[in-house]
Amino acid sequence: MTATANDTYKAPDTAPPILEAVGLTRHIPMHGRRHGQVVRAVDGVDLALRRGQILALVGQSGSGKSTLARLLALGDRPTSGEIRFDGRPVNAERRRDRRRHYGHVQMIMQDPFASLNRLHRLRYILSRPLRNFGTPGAAELEARIIELLERVNLTPGREFIDKYPHELSGGQRQRAAVARALAADPSVLLGDEPVSMLDVSIRLDILNLLTELRDRDGLSMLYITHDIASARHVADEVVVMFSGHLVEGGPAEAVTQNAKHPYTQLLLAASPDPDRLLSGEAGTGTAAASLAAAAGGPDADDDPDSAAGSATGADGGTEAGCPFRARCPHAQAICAERMPEAADAGSGHWVRCWLHT
Amino acid sequence: MTRRHHVRFRVPANRKVRVGLAVFLLLVLVAAFGQLFVGHVLGQSANRLHAGGNLESPSGRHWLGTTSFGQDVFAQLVAGTRTSLLVGLIGGAIATALAVLLGVLSGYTTGRSGAALTAFVNIFLVIPGLPLLILVASYTRGRGGWLTVAVIIGLTSWAGGARAKRAQTLSLRNRDFVEAANYSGESRTRILLLEVIPHLAPVIASTFLFSVVGSIAAEAGLDFIGAGHASTVSWGTMLYWVQSQGALQSGAWWWFLPPGLCIALVGTAAGLINFGVDELADPRLRTRKPGSAAGRSRRSGGVTPEGAR
Question: Which portions of the sequence form the region Disordered (chain B) (predicted)?
């Protein structure tokens, strides 16, 4: 599986960025007793998604991954910062502009049981983006829906078109959700943990579908996950997020094989070594098993209290230093003062840690 | 055409629902054609005084006896059914429409306008219904007949239903499928009408059922205390005359039991039909054939297929 990723691997700097975040910040005000404080869900994130590539965003629960994806999809408004599509800033004030953005950037949500309205047949669910982002005639519409269903391997499409979501399995539902995203004919897909709600045996199918969409149709993709092993499997580039900050990023191989940031190292240590597993029989079963084992890893590791406290950064907005310092084995005095700028670790690999400046 | 075929009517599998619908249908038939039958077959009329002796007990000529003015009780009951059902249906429809409109809008709208709508709903919620009803009815007394009464009842009784819709909408508005519809480029109106409101169908249906019953009871209540329209015949005015003529003391059960039982019957029918409204928002339940395993397990209170997902 890693071999496929390597075959199609392109140097990250060659492709131009298509979707960019510049200093993107989202502070969520708190209510009740902690009124006046904010949760710093996303804090000054710079991110560039390149044309025809998959960028994996890795981090634990509550690190702000999903908020970042919703900001990029315009499902939420940033406190400050800018989103650029194809080099031009995205204006989110007017509904017409937001709709145009939806036509370029589509989201695949985590839970396929919640993201499809159970009252509608697939025919209706898929016809809406087709109608809203294009104007196919009635006769053409059905053909387009069947084509979409078959593109995500729901074959034969004619049999699936009049099904209700409850008549589909979890994997089939997620395929339908992917088909809905594709119906808008986007150039970027944002996958918010698109496989974490699925059964282990079908995760690999969906991941392969996503890589196929990249390889065949040249789609760009943000793949959000807490499973660094699957990130290495599908992604060209990996960035690691902790408590609203990106702490490390670069080519997938470099980040996973030569992690610099202590948090990335912790994430990798919590997941089984993909090389060790792949050196045996590199069959589907083994790879799927490694994904499954890794999925529980980083999250299960954390004690809920400390994870929630440190990961969300709900501290009244006074946080200045590195958010990871409380759990970092290499914490120094300077870590409490401020966060370092990104330091280059060679060939596009960068890290924000005082150990490497 | 494909949209049509999943809303087509079929006989519900649930026996309670069947009984409820049958009772309701019977009352509607009586309201629609009962007066023709009474007039042409029995030769009676609701308002004719001294059609028989005073306080006669039931007989072949007067099926439900006569009042103390010698009016035919059966003819009155049939005429009253029409008035009471019309008031119930119109009042219930107005109350339900307002409840859906204001409930869904106040739940879905954020910011200042949402808060203002919620405040408006809350104000109407705390205004005591019956005194307001009596107040308004006493102004319009004698004008517009039962239709005015129905409109007044509808306009004063929507607030509770609106709160229920608002609560449901609040939980629906942040569901993933609503967000997904937004990413699919859907307009706000379309999201409300085709994604959110269909999920409220069971709540709307049950609000409507109980608004109908509530309106009938409110109308009867108004008439009973004498705040209604004096010359209309309804179940409420029948009870008003029962009370003022001391029918309970003289033991004229044929006069006071029928209107009371009819009001109870409408309530029971609504309650029974309400057992079937869950199917409205769940295609899983809808696609089951009558008498299938799912139908049986629901009747016995067992697990629905939801649990077996």
Answer: 286-309
Asked if A128 lies within 8 A of B184 by C-beta distance, the reply is yes
pLDDT digits (tens, 9 = 90+) for A90-115: 988 888 999 999 999 999 999 998 99
Stretch A216-223: mean pLDDT: 92
- State how far Cα A157 lies from the chain centre: 28
pLDDT, residue B128, reads: 84
Residues in chain A within 8 Å Cβ distance of B282? 118
Instruction: Please report the DSSP string for A203-245 in residue order.
Output: HHHHHHHHHHHHHHH--EEEEEES-HHHHHHH-SEEEEEETTE
Listed by start position, the domains of chain B span: 14-284
Least Cα separation, residue B285 to chain A (angstroms): 11
Task: Please identify which residue in the block is written with the tokens 């793949």.
Answer: A223
Q: Where does the pLDDT of residue A273 fall: very low under 50, low under 70, confident under 90, or very high at 90 and above?
A: low
B202 touches chain A (CB under 8 A): no
**A180:B185 CB<8 A:** no
- Closest by alpha carbon to A56, among A317, A255, A200? A255
**Interface residue B286 vs chain A (CB under 8 A):** no
The domain segmentation of chain A, as residue ranges, is 2-118+164-309
Residue B299 has pLDDT above 80, yes or no: no
Burial of B235 (0-12, 13-18, 19+ CB in 10 A): buried
List the single residue in B with minimal CA-CA distance to A114: B176
Q: Tell me the chain B residues in contact with residue A177 when contact means C-beta distances shorter than 8 Å.
A: 180
Average pLDDT, chain B: 82
A117–B183 CB contact, under 8 Å: no
Does the pLDDT at position A279 exceed 90?
no
Could you tell me the two tokens for A254? 């470099």
Q: Which of 116-175 (B) contact A at CB < 8 A?
A: 175
Tokens of A16: 């131009």
Q: Which amino acid is residue B209, in one-letter code?
A: L
From the list A219, A157, A221, A163, the residue with the least C-alpha distance to A194 is A221
Residue B186: its chain A contacts at CB < 8 A? Answer: 128, 132
Q: Longest Cα pair distance anywhere in chain B, in angstroms?
A: 75
Task: Spell out which residues of chain B touch residue A183, defining contact as CB-CB under 8 Å.
Answer: 184
Give strand pairing partners of A106.
Answer: A189
Q: Band of the pLDDT at A298, cuts 50, 70, 90?
A: very low
CATH class as words, domain B14-284: mainly alpha
pLDDT band at A312 (very low <50, low <70, confident <90, very high): very low
Measured between CB atoms, which of A111, A121, A162 is closest to B176?
A111
- A31: Cα within 13 Å, side-chain hemisphere: 0
Among A208, A235, A219, residue whose Cα is nearest residue A10 = A235
A120-167 per-position pLDDT tens digit: 999 999 999 999 998 777 788 999 999 999 999 898 989 999 999 999
Q: In the CATH scheme, what is the code of domain A2-118+164-309?
A: 3.40.50.300
In contact, A133 and A183? CB cutoff 8 Å = yes
The shortest CB-CB distance from A115 to any of B177, B305, B309 is to B177
**Peptide bond between residue A156 and the one before it cis (omega within 30 degrees of 0):** yes
Check pLDDT > 80 for residue B156: yes
pLDDT of A340 higher than 70: yes
